[in-house]
Amino acid sequence: MKAFRDTVKFQRGDAGELIVAEFLKRRGGYINATADFSGVNGDKAPKLTGMNAGLVIPDIDASKDGARCWVEVKTKKEPVLFRKTGRLRHGVDTRHFRQYQEVEQITGSKAYVVIYEESTGDLLCAPLARLAKAILRGAGTGWAEQMVFWDRDVFDVLGNVDAEPVQ
Predict the structure, then answer these.
(1) pTM
(2) What mean pLDDT do residues 66-84 have?
(3) CA angle (21, 27, 31) in 5-degree steps
(4) If DSSP codes are grouped into helix, strand and coil, which group holds residue 6?
């Protein structure tokens, strides 16, 4: 069986996390990459563990000027057009989103979702609190029920990696 670390999905996600980490560092931030997978095949996400539970943590623990936050990075080829509304949207796994909310509550550190859109080069960002209020209902059936979705315009554009100066 192929280790998760060797899959295209993992490698795309890992590349996106590196892009976001470098983006934050260029702006004076400090990062602790928390996305190092463990387990026999490198397929176990890092967790915040307590006596009776383990919660998947976001990819980056970022700090700057005395403030600390969590950053979950999602690498997406492009936003998906929702035909019913004609609007572009992005989504993430519902279970993980709920766990990121719990991590935010337990640690007292704000958490954000940053989406790296490969098609545009945009880095989109929104705090979990805003995303929790903007979840689109009736997003679908089957696999779509396991995802939460938001219109693309719920996110702020942090910057564009294609427009970044080469270092």
Answers:
(1) 0.87
(2) 94
(3) 35
(4) helix
